[in-house]
Structures are given as C-alpha cells and as structure tokens.
Task: structure prediction
Amino acid sequence: MLDIAYDWDRAFPASQRSWSMFEQRGASFTPRVAGGGRGVTDSMLNFSGVWRFRELLPFWKHAPNGQSDIVSVGEGRTNLQQADLLAQHLGFDLDNGGGLFLEYEGFNPSGSFKDNGMTAAFTHARMVGASRVACASTGNTSASLAMYAALTGMEAFVFIGEGKIAYGKLSQALDYGAKTLQVAGDFDACLARVRAIAETRPELGVYLMNSVNPFRLEGQKTIMLRILEGLNWQIPDWIVVPGGNLGNCSAFAKAFMELKDLGMIDRIPRLAIINAMGARTLDRIVNEQGVVWNGGRYEKSKVDEEYARMDRENDQASTVASAIEINRPVNLPKALRAIEIMDGVVRSFDDETIVEHKSLVGRYGFGCEPASGASIAGARGLLEEGLIKPTDRVACVLTGHQLKDPDVTVNYHTGLPTKQVQRWLSEQSAENPSGSVSNRPIRVADDIEAIIAAMGE
Ligand SMILES: *Cc1c(COP(=O)(O)O)cnc(C)c1O
Result:
C-alpha cells in the first residue's frame, strides 16, 4: 500500500497555517466551475470544499502558465447539520453540552462522499497523463468516477459484481457513459480483477480509481476539515463512519494526524467504524482476533487466517447496505493505523438496525442511503454501551444521498419487496436500447482475458 507524506515546512510553512484563510475562501468564491476542463482559477478552487483546503493536500502543481492541473466541479460543498431532534431521540443530553452533527455528503455533485476523493485522484491522473480510468464498485465509486471521466474526457471502465448495486448508482454510471462490465463474481472479485489489469497490464494504460489509490484518500481528508469548520474549529469527541473498503476512516485519521503534526489542533477525536453484520471483517479482525497496528507490524497471519476461513466457508459479504458489502477491505492496514491514531472502536449492526436508523435520519428531516444509516446505528449503540456519553459531541458522516437507493426506503415504508438489481441482466428479454447515447452494461465471465476483451480497443 502507498501512503502520501509531505515536507510540510516547504509545502505549508508554519507562518501560513491558519483556519481563517480556509474560512475566507469558503465565503468568497466564484460559483462557476471549470467543468473539469483546464483553466480552473483560484476563485473556482475556493468554491470546492476540497480545494479550499489545498495546502493540506499539496501534491498538485501549478503549470508554468499559472494554471493548475486540478480537476474540480465544485465538490465538497456539504454541510454539517446540528440534528437536535434526532439527538434527543437517541438520548443525547443537549442541555449539558451533548450534540449530534450530521455531515451530509449527499450534497456532492454525484451524491456521495466519493467525489471528495475522485477530484484528487483525477487531478493526479491528469498529472501523470492518464486517459483511461477504472474501478470496481458497489455503486458510488462508479458513479463518481464516471462523472469525472465524462467531465475530463477520459475513458471510464466500471466493474460491477453480482452483489447488490442500487439502481440510482447504476443509472449514474450508465448516464455518464462509463463502459460498465458486470463481472460474474462479487465485489471483492471485481476489485482483484481491476487491480490485476491496472498493475500487470501497463500496455492497457488503465489508471486505478479505487481507494487503494492514495490520492483519493487525500481528497477525503477534507471531510474532517469541513466538520471542524462547522464546529468553529472545535474538536468533536467522536467521529462515526460506516466502514466498507475502509478508505474513508483511513483518510480521516490521516487528516487528524497531519493537523496535529502541523500544530493546528491539540486533540484528536475518537473514531467509531461501523460494519454491517453481513460484512464485518474488520470487526472480527480487531475485536475477535485482537489485531492492532503495532507501528505497521500488525499480525498479518491472523488476517490471512481470517481470509482463508472466508474462502473455506464461502463466506460472502451480504447486506442491504450495499455500499459497505465488502469482505476484503483493501485499506485494512490503514484502518488499523486509523484506530491507533484516533483511539478507535469497531462495531457491527444487522440490516434491520441499519435501515431503522437510516429511516430515523429521514424522519427527522435529512435522509441518507442505507450504508450511511450505519453511522447513526453506531452512535446509538455506543451511547447504549456507555462508550459515547450523552454529553459528548458526535459527528456522524452521512456518506450518501437518500435518493441513491429508493428501493430500500420504499420497502421499509410499504413492506413491498425491494428490487435490488441482482443478476438483473440475466433477463435477456430486454430489447436493445435505441437512444443515441444508450449504454448497456456488458456481462462478462470472471476471467481476466474475457474482461480485457470486453473492454474493447
Ligand atoms: C463507499 C461508501 C462507503 C464505504 O466507504 P469506505 O471508504 O469504502 O469504507 C460507505 N457509504 C457509502 C454511501 C459509500 O458510497
């Protein structure tokens, strides 16, 4: 795994470190975005909730003509909702300092936090001259990748598995024109294939956009900056986030570690990573196997044993929270580091509890997709355990928009069956679509040569 480190004294000298600079940029921007093209101005960058904090992810560069390589469409313009009614419902003590804050990442252009990462990774892709990008996805990564690829004129490949993918997300990838391959395997198999293609077939020139790409995590750090900004730069007691491929939690801890190193904060909040019960690899590895970061020398053999057990028992991830339906999280080592940095805990909740808490977010007036509901389930569970105190200030990350997965919501409210898009292309009766930009997914075997053939020239 690669991690990005900076020479901070050069990149962001002590004399320039202040919150007010970031704040002022947020207040004075040009609401015109560069559409992903070149010629993005500083004022346009200030509109972005990622690049407003550009000194904290200083891998990008200015070209000699003063223009930067940065790819931005005004992502990260999210907000932190002070959710008092929901907080009361869950048992927070608002009169004595307690509070629940919802960081609503559904406001991003493609409707999930993934845009924070894609803007950074596409910036890097452009710096290295990439023209073809690919990812495996449970949905939101593909939606975000396809959007940025369309905006920058790059060729996009999306690998989806036979697990669940919400219609909202699939519709985005198709609409943005990504070549969508439905591989006969689960998400973990798709990711293994796309990594193999990116890493072992350099002649194909495919740039990998999954969160194993460290540049994505640089962009996702800014979610924490915006939470701090929403709290007037005060540090909350807890950050709660769903855990899938574990990129987000890894990015969050890196943000706090760096802010502490930079002398901009003196305290780091605690972290709660929430798994779905049907995809609780991290929970098992941390709470049952007792694996800890240990300065990078974590007990890899215990992780391997766990993966071997999953293979033996054909234990495949399964949860209604499709965005976290992942059993082999690529960022596992970084998540162990995150737990160390932020004194973190891991918990799992069943689908019913996750959907119940997703629905509470809706009922109290914001809404989110199922996986995001895991963070609210986590806050409630940790309150009941007594680990989170009613007087704590807790920020839950709502990772994706309510409308990403309306099937689960309608099912919850009506009891009618969900229409998860499972093996949906097996219904071959569908006529070939005839729109001028119709973009039908291609079914392909879980085989690297077949996949490369399906990718076309
Ligand atoms: C991707 C995603 C997650 C999981 O995030 P990781 O960084 O992979 O742990 C959670 N919720 C939503 C809505 C997502 O799209």
Notes: Confidence is low (pLDDT under 50) at residues 420-425. The pocket of pyridoxal-5'-phosphate is lined by residues 112, 114, 140, 211, 242-248, 323-324, 369, 371-372, 399-400 (CB under 6 Å). The CA atoms of residues 185 and 408 lie 23 Å apart. The two ends are 30 Å apart (CA to CA).
